[in-house]
Write a structure and sequence with these properties.
Layout (H helix, E strand, L loop, with lengths): L1 H23 L7 E14 L11 E12 L4 E13 L9 E14 H4 L9 E16 L4 E17 L4 E13 L18 E14 L17 H15 L6 E5 L4 E5 L1 H9 L5 E2 L13 H12 L5 E7 L5 H21 L7 E8 L8 H7 L1 E6 L1
Parallel strand pairs: 12-13
Antiparallel strand pairs: 1-2, 1-8, 2-3, 3-4, 4-5, 5-6, 6-7, 7-8, 9-10, 11-14, 12-14
Helix pairs in contact: 1-3, 3-5
């Protein structure tokens, strides 16, 4: 009877958890942002002999509008301006302007690399694309139109849910650049001859009515197994209060006695009851201790039974560190049983290190890996 009750409850809990998960995946977040940056540049080539800029030369400005398709990928269009002038007393004087418009793909590397496991305020974007540009030198009557490829990295520091401080390093490669950046001579090259580096700092301003922008949203599409197991554990604790019976199963030749206690042992050994931990912590999270209560009840009712306490860590960190962390987690759970009156001789700690069976690229999956499970013997 108990097994039927538990099975039905577990199935109903799965349905409820799935419905909750589907709602979580549709969490709204802002997708639009405006980027405003300013900084320095360094044209590498081509430059006419005798013409060069300062090692870090102002001025560069960039204005972009970005739209995120989801929390990992997006698109942006941006307008850039560069000013090139000769280095004082070390270059022939010149004054050129460079204008560009680009369409770029954006990748939220912070989410892809799971920055959320160690920071809530630092992000990283990658961007790359193509566009058109024009180099102008009014003194020399130069107007040189060209195509370009651009790629770069943008570091982010979240100041508020609406504003992030940014620092960007970008490389621009020009094609069909007919004049040098100083405008004084022709390049005699129609290929990818122009090379320019930009470094800027600025702000991302997030637009929209929702609380957070896609840059900082972690989307989970996995069922919250920890919460589900705790619900089942609570249900099991209540079911255990029912007086235990023996069920007679008649067969043509023999009669088999099935004890309901075996149902509880089976559930424990099948890892329906687990204790979970926060990242880099060895103390169980508060809402997962219900599993300990179920195992403790079983041990008290079965004084001849012994218990393996199996500790695990996620795959973040070195193997040696994860071995120590999984051991500390298992030992802390062992201490709880000892304080509850279970003899140490009945308890065996097993440090399994990182659980390689669980996907390491998902924060939700890694959260499920940070656990202690049990094996009744």
């Amino acid at each position: 009877m108990k097994k039927i009750v538990i099975t039905l409850a577990f199935a109903l809990s799965l349905m409820h958890a799935k419905a909750q998960t589907e709602n979580n995946t549709t969490t709204s977040y802002n997708k639009w942002s405006i980027e405003l940056d300013g900084g320095f540049n360094k044209p590498q080539r081509p430059l006419t002999s005798g013409f060069h800029t300062s090692r870090i030369s102002p001025f560069t400005a960039d204005l972009g509008i970005r739209y995120m398709l989801n929390n990992k990928f997006g698109l942006k269009t941006d307008f850039g301006y560069n000013s090139f002038t000769g280095q004082n007393n070390r270059s022939i004087d010149f004054d050129s302007k460079y204008y560009r418009v680009d369409l770029q793909a954006v990748t939220n590397l912070g989410r892809i690399m799971n920055f959320e496991t160690w920071t809530k305020t630092i992000g990283l974007l990658g961007h790359a694309g193509f566009g058109v540009a024009q180099l102008e030198n009014n003194d020399l009557h130069v107007k040189d139109r060209m195509g370009n490829l651009i790629a770069g990295l943008t570091g982010q520091i979240r100041l508020t849910d609406r504003i992030a401080l940014t620092g960007d390093i970008s490389t621009i490669l020009n094609a069909f650049q007919d004049h040098t950046f100083d405008g004084a001579s022709a390049t005699n090259s129609r290929g990818f001859s122009g090379l320019l580096f930009n470094g800027t700092v600025g702000l991302n301003v997030y637009l929209g009515k929702n609380e957070k922008h896609a840059d900082w949203v972690v989307i989970s599409d996995n069922t919250d197994i920890a919460a589900l197991e705790n619900k089942v554990a609570n249900l099991e604790a209540q079911v255990n209060k029912i007086p235990e019976k023996q069920v007679i199963v008649e067969k043509p030749v023999t009669t088999t006695v099935v004890n309901d206690k075996d149902v509880i042992k089976e559930l424990i050994n099948d890892k329906y009851y687990s204790v979970y931990f926060d990242f880099n912590k060895s103390t169980p999270i508060e809402n997962s201790t219900a599993a300990i209560d179920v195992v403790l009840t079983y041990l008290r009712k079965n004084p001849s039974a012994s218990l393996d306490i199996l500790g695990y860590a996620d795959q973040v960190g070195s193997s040696e560190y994860n071995e120590k962390l999984s051991n500390a987690r298992a030992n802390n759970v062992k201490t709880i049983f000892e304080k509850a009156g279970i003899a140490s001789s009945r308890l065996n700690v097993v440090a399994n290190g990182a659980d390689t069976s669980i996907q390491k690229d998902s924060e939700e999956a890694r959260r499920l890996a940070r656990r202690v499970t049990f094996r009744i013997k």
